[in-house]
Amino acid sequence: MLFAVVARCPVFGGKVASFDAAKAKAVPGVRDVFQFETSGRGASTTGGIAVLADNSWAAIQGRKALDVKWEEGPAANESSAELHKQFLANAAKPGKVVRNDGDADSALGPVRKKSKRSTSFPSLPTLAWSR
């Protein structure tokens, strides 16, 4: 049985510029190193460099030895604050009506007290990105 670890760009949409497979293959237990390209959309399809080894320790050490240089792409300068602004701007736009049952405006019209609240949650990391 072989173990594999993947080095992925720390910036979404980034790509491999270069890496040193020879350094990773010099780690005892590493069997192979290969690059794979992006296929489709989503965090698990972003491409990267796979290191195959006899055990997980060798695979992790091989990944550390890759000396990867990343082409980070247009998302390299994005920040949480800028994304938050984009989300608020998109939320302020009218949405697509998927279903229209009843008349909410006339049902809520005679209500004397109205309350408007806004809530946001921080983005939760769903994947551990490794350099």
Written account of the structure:
This protein is an alpha+beta fold. Helices cover 24% and strands 19% of the residues. The protein has four helices and five strands, in the order ββαββαβαα. It has a three-stranded antiparallel sheet with strand order 1-4-3. Strands 2-5 form a two-stranded antiparallel sheet. The chain is elongated. The two termini are 25 Å apart. Mean pLDDT is 85; it is low at 126-131.
The number of helices is 4
Derived from helix and strand composition plus strand pairing, the structural class reads: alpha+beta
Give me the count of strands.
Answer: 5
Average pLDDT: 85
Name the helix and strand elements from N-terminus to C-terminus, one letter apiece.
EEHEEHEHH
Shape, principal axes of CA atoms: elongated
**Span between termini:** 25 Å
Oligomeric nature of the chains: single chain
**Poorly predicted sequence stretches spanning 5 or more consecutive residues:** 126-131
SSE map:
Blueprint: E1 3-7, E2 15-18, H1 21-25, E3 30-36, E4 48-53, H2 56-64, E5 69-71, H3 80-92, H4 104-108
Features of the shown structure:
two-stranded antiparallel ribbon, 131 residues, disordered C terminus, 5 strands, alpha+beta, 4 helices, three-stranded antiparallel sheet, elongated, single chain
In short:
Helix content is 24%, strand content 19%. The chain is α+β, with helices and mostly antiparallel strands.
